[in-house]
Design goal:
- The chain has about 110 residues and is mostly beta strands.
- The chain contains one helix and six strands, in the order H-E-E-E-E-E-E.
- It has one domain.
- Strand 2 and strand 3 form a beta hairpin.
- It is elongated and about 40 Å long.
- Bound molecules: zinc ion (2 copies).
- The site of one zinc ion has 8 residues, from loops.
Length: about 110
Protein backbone atom coordinates (compact mmCIF):
# COMPACT_ATOMS: atom_id res chain seq x y z
CA UNK A 1 0.00 0.00 0.00
CA UNK A 2 1.40 3.39 -0.97
CA UNK A 3 1.53 5.58 2.10
CA UNK A 4 3.26 8.58 0.55
CA UNK A 5 0.11 10.58 -0.04
CA UNK A 6 -1.42 9.75 3.32
CA UNK A 7 1.00 11.64 5.53
CA UNK A 8 -0.60 12.52 8.83
CA UNK A 9 -3.06 15.33 8.42
CA UNK A 10 -3.74 17.43 11.50
CA UNK A 11 -6.98 17.21 13.49
CA UNK A 12 -9.41 19.79 12.19
CA UNK A 13 -13.08 20.35 12.74
CA UNK A 14 -15.01 20.94 9.57
CA UNK A 15 -16.72 24.14 8.57
CA UNK A 16 -20.51 24.13 8.34
CA UNK A 17 -20.40 23.63 4.56
CA UNK A 18 -17.88 20.82 4.87
CA UNK A 19 -19.98 19.13 7.56
CA UNK A 20 -23.01 19.14 5.28
CA UNK A 21 -20.99 17.92 2.31
CA UNK A 22 -19.51 15.08 4.32
CA UNK A 23 -22.93 14.12 5.64
CA UNK A 24 -24.24 13.82 2.07
CA UNK A 25 -21.22 11.74 1.23
CA UNK A 26 -21.59 9.36 4.14
CA UNK A 27 -25.38 9.05 4.07
CA UNK A 28 -25.38 6.01 1.81
CA UNK A 29 -22.99 4.24 4.18
CA UNK A 30 -25.18 4.69 7.22
CA UNK A 31 -27.47 1.95 8.42
CA UNK A 32 -30.33 2.62 10.79
CA UNK A 33 -31.59 -0.46 12.59
CA UNK A 34 -34.66 0.83 14.38
CA UNK A 35 -35.62 -2.57 15.70
CA UNK A 36 -32.34 -3.05 17.54
CA UNK A 37 -31.82 0.68 18.07
CA UNK A 38 -28.46 0.79 16.43
CA UNK A 39 -27.15 3.31 13.95
CA UNK A 40 -23.90 2.38 12.35
CA UNK A 41 -21.74 3.72 9.60
CA UNK A 42 -18.92 2.22 7.62
CA UNK A 43 -17.09 4.88 5.69
CA UNK A 44 -13.77 6.44 4.85
CA UNK A 45 -11.90 9.16 6.68
CA UNK A 46 -12.00 12.30 4.49
CA UNK A 47 -8.52 13.26 5.62
CA UNK A 48 -6.45 10.10 5.59
CA UNK A 49 -8.59 7.84 3.43
CA UNK A 50 -8.61 4.98 5.91
CA UNK A 51 -11.82 3.09 6.41
CA UNK A 52 -13.60 3.08 9.73
CA UNK A 53 -16.85 1.97 11.24
CA UNK A 54 -18.73 3.94 13.85
CA UNK A 55 -21.78 3.39 15.96
CA UNK A 56 -24.12 6.13 17.09
CA UNK A 57 -25.29 5.86 20.67
CA UNK A 58 -28.37 7.41 22.24
CA UNK A 59 -26.23 10.28 23.46
CA UNK A 60 -25.38 11.27 19.90
CA UNK A 61 -28.98 11.43 18.79
CA UNK A 62 -30.67 14.77 18.72
CA UNK A 63 -34.30 14.24 19.45
CA UNK A 64 -36.44 16.07 16.95
CA UNK A 65 -37.06 19.54 18.34
CA UNK A 66 -40.27 19.90 16.38
CA UNK A 67 -41.78 17.05 18.32
CA UNK A 68 -41.30 19.06 21.50
CA UNK A 69 -39.51 16.30 23.32
CA UNK A 70 -36.02 17.72 23.27
CA UNK A 71 -35.69 17.53 27.04
CA UNK A 72 -36.77 13.93 27.19
CA UNK A 73 -33.88 11.55 27.77
CA UNK A 74 -35.75 8.93 25.79
CA UNK A 75 -35.12 8.63 22.10
CA UNK A 76 -38.25 7.97 20.08
CA UNK A 77 -36.98 5.33 17.69
CA UNK A 78 -40.25 5.33 15.77
CA UNK A 79 -39.89 8.96 14.75
CA UNK A 80 -37.42 11.04 12.81
CA UNK A 81 -33.88 10.53 14.05
CA UNK A 82 -31.31 13.28 13.84
CA UNK A 83 -27.82 12.31 14.73
CA UNK A 84 -24.19 13.11 14.23
CA UNK A 85 -21.70 10.78 12.66
CA UNK A 86 -18.10 11.54 13.47
CA UNK A 87 -15.08 10.15 11.69
CA UNK A 88 -13.78 7.18 13.64
CA UNK A 89 -10.56 6.36 11.86
CA UNK A 90 -7.77 4.92 13.95
CA UNK A 91 -4.96 6.76 12.18
CA UNK A 92 -2.98 9.45 13.90
CA UNK A 93 -4.11 13.01 13.30
CA UNK A 94 -1.79 15.41 15.14
CA UNK A 95 -3.61 17.76 17.47
CA UNK A 96 -6.43 15.36 18.26
CA UNK A 97 -7.81 16.25 21.72
CA UNK A 98 -6.66 13.82 24.39
CA UNK A 99 -10.23 12.88 25.31
CA UNK A 100 -10.89 11.75 21.75
CA UNK A 101 -9.48 8.39 20.77
CA UNK A 102 -10.40 8.24 17.10
CA UNK A 103 -11.04 10.37 14.07
CA UNK A 104 -9.73 13.52 12.47
CA UNK A 105 -12.35 16.00 13.65
CA UNK A 106 -14.73 15.42 10.76
CA UNK A 107 -18.37 15.01 11.67
CA UNK A 108 -21.67 15.71 10.04
CA UNK A 109 -25.38 15.88 10.79
CA UNK A 110 -27.66 13.18 9.45
CA UNK A 111 -31.35 12.54 9.57
CA UNK A 112 -33.37 9.39 9.11
CA UNK A 113 -37.08 9.57 8.46
CA UNK A 114 -39.12 6.43 9.03
ZN1 LIG B 1 -11.19 11.28 9.57
ZN1 LIG C 1 -8.18 9.71 9.46
Amino acid sequence: MAENDTAEKPWRELTREERLAWAVNIASHVEVDRENRIISAAATCPNCGHGFSATVTDADILVDVERGVRDSPTVDWSGTLKFTIACGCAEGHPGRPSEVSHGCGASGPLKDVP
